[in-house]
Amino acid sequence: MVKEKKVIITNKTGLHARPAAQFVQKAGKYDSKIEILFEEKEVNAKSIMGVMSLGVGRDDEIIVRAEGEDAEAAVKELVDFIEIEMTKEDE
């Protein structure tokens, strides 16, 4: 099963350093193959170097895609992390 969802990065720093590390840690809990698609690039969401190499900033739109048994749960948790937890860091 493949599941994907578009999400806009709304926190101040984007998907860099600490948020990227937390994102990769959450992605690593799942068996599914998880990728982030941004512009013309596609990277493994379980790779900190891959995620940071995208240079995703505030107001950028990414697609979180997962393929596997737990794809739906993976996409839901990762999108919730971006939309809810990452924005709390700005407060």
From TrEMBL:
One Gene Ontology term, aspect cellular component: cytoplasm
HPr domain mapped to chain residues: 2-91
Biological processes annotated in GO: phosphoenolpyruvate-dependent sugar phosphotransferase system
Major subcellular location class: cytoplasm
Matching SUPFAM superfamilies: HPr-like
Subcellular location field: Cytoplasm
UniProt cross-references to Pfam families, sorted A to Z: PTS-HPr
Keywords attached to this entry: Cytoplasm, Phosphotransferase system
NCBIfam families: PTS_HPr_family (TIGR01003)
Protein's job: General (non sugar-specific) component of the phosphoenolpyruvate-dependent sugar phosphotransferase system (sugar PTS). This major carbohydrate active-transport system catalyzes the phosphorylation of incoming sugar substrates concomitantly with their translocation across the cell membrane. The phosphoryl group from phosphoenolpyruvate (PEP) is transferred to the phosphoryl carrier protein HPr by enzyme I. Phospho-HPr then transfers it to the PTS EIIA domain.
The protein's name: Phosphocarrier protein HPr
Annotated organism of origin: Halanaerobium praevalens (strain ATCC 33744 / DSM 2228 / GSL)
